[in-house]
# Entry
Amino acid sequence: MATRNEIAIGRALRQVYDAATERAIATGDAVVSGEQAKRLIAALRMAWARAARAATASTMRDVAAMEAKQDLWQQFAEEYARAYGGNAITAILEATRAQIMEMIRAGLNDGLTLPEIAKRIREAVPGRARRRAMVMARTETHSASVYASVRTAETQSRWPLEKEWVSVSDHRTRDFGEADGVVDQGNHRAMNGVKARMSEHFMVPNKFGGFDMMMYPGETSAPAYQCVNCRCVLKFRRIGGFIA
# Structure
């Protein structure tokens, strides 16, 4: 069953696809209008806010030393939007533009007229938007949630902390083939149990022989192959013992 976030993002994505398709057929380029971009931003902001609220409530409930603040989740949702929202929207709109232009090129190669191409794109949009909405909602809400838990720990703890990367131990976890023989681009299985100071980056292995620097799982400034559909979380350790 689709979540509220997936439904909201999917609806906004369909509007973006429709508007970009009309523009592409009329002008030859699938540029998205500022109004459509704003609607997509609004849908993502709802997802970020829900994730931040849940993460903040969970962190403050689990850590007795932290004092509840009613507006803390909203603060962190807005911080996340400022830090990563622009990059997310730019990437989404550019991917949408590229997909529509590729569908137009394919239609022309098939000998279709522009109205026929537009009809083909419109028929494909609901399923395409639904799939993208699911991935986006899961990825963005997870990233916002982990971000909010980090910021909650940083701002509310009375003690210096360190953080520990916690991976999900199943066949879907990113690794270099240990679980299912498939070499993923990032290795999150190897990160399980790795600790760092709150101000330090994790060094997350990639299949290219190097590392990607990430402050927390799902940090969207890292490459997409480290973030999309990530399920890893953090534990926080007070220097001398766990507090979350």
User: Anything to note?
Assistant: The helical segments are 4-27, 34-62, 72-109, 114-156, 224-227.
